[in-house]
Each structure stands twice: as structure tokens, then as C-alpha cells.
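Researcher: We plan to redesign the surface later, but first we want a full-length starting point. C-alpha cells attached.
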């Protein structure tokens, strides 16, 4: 088994503002890192991989802060530096709106192609996070010329807008597909099928498909559908990133040729740990391995 797995993630990376209420200081706003790209990459690091990320960050203070967090966590940035920023307005619990500048957390297909030409990255696992669906043909073209790596699709709202005629073609082209039960229902209904019929249409002998819910995983392996039940996490601190942690764990455990039950147990464990993690904190390599 390969010791140093190279994980490459393509996805969102951005600054999020959060507010906490303290009896001493009142309401305090602070930065936290967000985006599917970060969440997938940090899970890879916690499971022993060498993680790299292709994403877009701004050439501003937010972008510099993001870059420093990546460096601290030893995640290689192979992405695109943008001159754009974007304003967001958020309303917090005290009802007072706060407007702040945040780095753009998306990357275009054109930028992704340029990054690949520039970096020519090597990888054992490639995971697609929160991206527009129009990047999928390029990724599947990469897959056709790289037979050794695992190509993983972590479903997101942006990919749900894929044209109906391309749903089966694009999604079934990945080695591993993960989605939540709502995403599965939306895609199935768009092609006039129920979830089980949809699974069988995108499944084949060579891929793995996982549909997550709060206390069960439905998965397709070798064209057979099974369900794995587990105890849901009580009182999570923050559920953001749970699905990304599950997707990255499934990919890494599959690359390591673990049995399906071990894949599920480790991936649920990682998902639950993500719910308890302060997202910008330094995470030790291998620290999430069961």
C-alpha cells in the first residue's frame, strides 16, 4: 500500500465571518476559513495524505490570511490568485447587519484548466468539491488519460444544475460519487426516476456511490444497493463540512483497499469529527485515523 497518498482537491475556499457573544466583550466578529476545497483538503491531511488544493483566493488581506492558514496546515496551494473581492451582508443574532469584504470562494473552469497546465499536478486521488457543472467534461477527460488515480465527485448545489441530458453521462464517469439524500432525490426526479432506479443507472461494476442521511448511508457497490445504519451525532457544534469529510474519507479508504465496513466506519467517524472542529485550527496529520 502506498504510504504517501497525494490528494488533490478542486473546490471553494473563502473567508467566513462568525460572531460569538461573550459576557465580557459582547458580540465579537472573527474570521474562519470556509469552502468545500478547504474541508476536503483538511480531511485528507487528518487521514495521512499529502493534500493540495486548486482554488481561487483574492490578492487582498483575506487571501493572505487564507494562504497563511494553508501553510500552517501544510496544504499546498496550486490555485489561482484573483484580484476580485465580493461584499456580503450578514445579519447576526443581535439583529445588527454587518457588511464585510470576503475573498471569492469559487474558481472558474477556465482558471482550473490554466492551473493544470501551469502546475501539471500529480495525484493519486482527485476530488471535485463545490464547482460549476461545466468543469465535469474537462475532469472526465483527465480521467480518460489517468487510469491509476481515483476520481471522486462530492455532489453540491452547483452541480445539481447539470443539464438533464448529461446527468447520467457525467456523474457515472466518476469512480466514487457521494451525495446527500436530498441531492439524490432532486437528480432522480429530474430524470423521472426514484432514487433506487437512479442509483442503478449511474452505478456500474467499477464505481462506488454513497447517499448520506443523518443516521444511515445507502451505498451501491458491485451494482448492489445496501444500507448502513449508525447512531446520529448528538448536539454537534457545527455540521458544516460533514459531507465533505465523509467524501474525502471514503476516497482515501477506498484507495487503501479497506473493506466496505471499515470505509463506512472511518468515514462516519471523520464526518463527526468535522462537526466538532474549529475549521482554521491546525490539525495533526493522521489524527483522525481510527
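Model: Full-length starting sequence:
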Amino acid at each position: 500500500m502506498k504510504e504517501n497518498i497525494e490528494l488533490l482537491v478542486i473546490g471553494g475556499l473563502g473567508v467566513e465571518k462568525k460572531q460569538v457573544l461573550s459576557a465580557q466583550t459582547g458580540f465579537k466578529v472573527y474570521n474562519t476559513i470556509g469552502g468545500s476545497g478547504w474541508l476536503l483538503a483538511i480531511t485528507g491531511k487528518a487521514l495521512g495524505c499529502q493534500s493540495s488544493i486548486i482554488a481561487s483566493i483574492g490578492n487582498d488581506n483575506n487571501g493572505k490570511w487564507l494562504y497563511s492558514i494553508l501553510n500552517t496546515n501544510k496544504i499546498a496551494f496550486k490555485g489561482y490568485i484573483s484580484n476580485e473581492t465580493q461584499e456580503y451582508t450578514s445579519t447576526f443574532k443581535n439583529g445588527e447587519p454587518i457588511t464585510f469584504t470576503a475573498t471569492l470562494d469559487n474558481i472558474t473552469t477556465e482558471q482550473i484548466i490554466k492551473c493544470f497546465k501551469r502546475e501539471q499536478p500529480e495525484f493519486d486521488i482527485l476530488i471535485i468539491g463545490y464547482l460549476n457543472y461545466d468543469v465535469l467534461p474537462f475532469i472526465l477527460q483527465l480521467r480518460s488519460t489517468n487510469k491509476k488515480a481515483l476520481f471522486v465527485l462530492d455532489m453540491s448545489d452547483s452541480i445539481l444544475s447539470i443539464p438533464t441530458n448529461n446527468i447520467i453521462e457525467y456523474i457515472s464517469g466518476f469512480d466514487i460519487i457521494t451525495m446527500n439524500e436530498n441531492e439524490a432525490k432532486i437528480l432522480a426526479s429530474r430524470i423521472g426516476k426514484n432514487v433506487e432506479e437512479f442509483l442503478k443507472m449511474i452505478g456500474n461494476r467499477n464505481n462506488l456511490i454513497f447517499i448520506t442521511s443523518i443516521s444511515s448511508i445507502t451505498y451501491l457497490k458491485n451494482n448492489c444497493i445496501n444500507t448502513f445504519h449508525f447512531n446520529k451525532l448528538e448536539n454537534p457544534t457545527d455540521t458544516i463540512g460533514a459531507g465533505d469529510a465523509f467524501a474525502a474519507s471514503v476516497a482515501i479508504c477506498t484507495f487503501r483497499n479497506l473493506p466496505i465496513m471499515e470505509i463506512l466506519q472511518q468515514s462516519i467517524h471523520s464526518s463527526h469529527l468535522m462537526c466538532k472542529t474549529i475549521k482554521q485550527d491546525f490539525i495533526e496529520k493522521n489524527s483522525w485515523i481510527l
